[in-house]
Specification:
F-box_dom; globular; three-stranded antiparallel β-sheet; single chain
Amino acid sequence: MRSAALEMLPLEIQRIIFSGLDYQALISLSATNRFYNQTIDPQAMADPLDKLQFVMRAAKDFPQHRPSEKGQDYHPGNFECYVCFRVRSPDCFDVLQAQYAYVDRLGHVVRDREPTRLDTLVPLRRFCIECGVRSGLHVPSDCLTTKTGRDLWVCRCWRVWPKPGVLRCPDCSGDCPLRPRKKLGVDKLPPSPPPLPQPSVSYAAAPRLSSA
């Protein structure tokens, strides 16, 4: 069915049709025209497992995403982000991306303090810089290096700028940090937990039995 004919159907019928489409089909349809770009949100409408499988397959099997080397020009290939489920340029990824993060009981990334036993260590799959900033894995004063060797920094207004090209944010006048922010709850392997305190129990002396 052509997209023009699909647009003529009632919205309820369109929603039923959309619900049967996989992630790849939703992406293709959303790129058809302005109407479907505003109507279809592949991220929200697709099944999470389907998004995962598609982005892994796209990064591996689609020719435009593979590494290539022509003469002295080398392209490392594109990489998949497991947060937004997009395959993106290597310039969108931090080469020293955190592999672990601690999250608190509310699901927030621990960044402003040392993690405690109440926090949970979670492994991180690959995520792009944009998603890292949005989720709090990259925060103001972080300094990043992309997989293409470009240096970036995160401003206090959460904008990401190249350095040394932009050392003062044109939006909020924040300055590039002289040194990277110390990482606390992100990218720290779990330390060996200290032994649990033993309960202090006082044992009363057994009563001495007197012979009759």
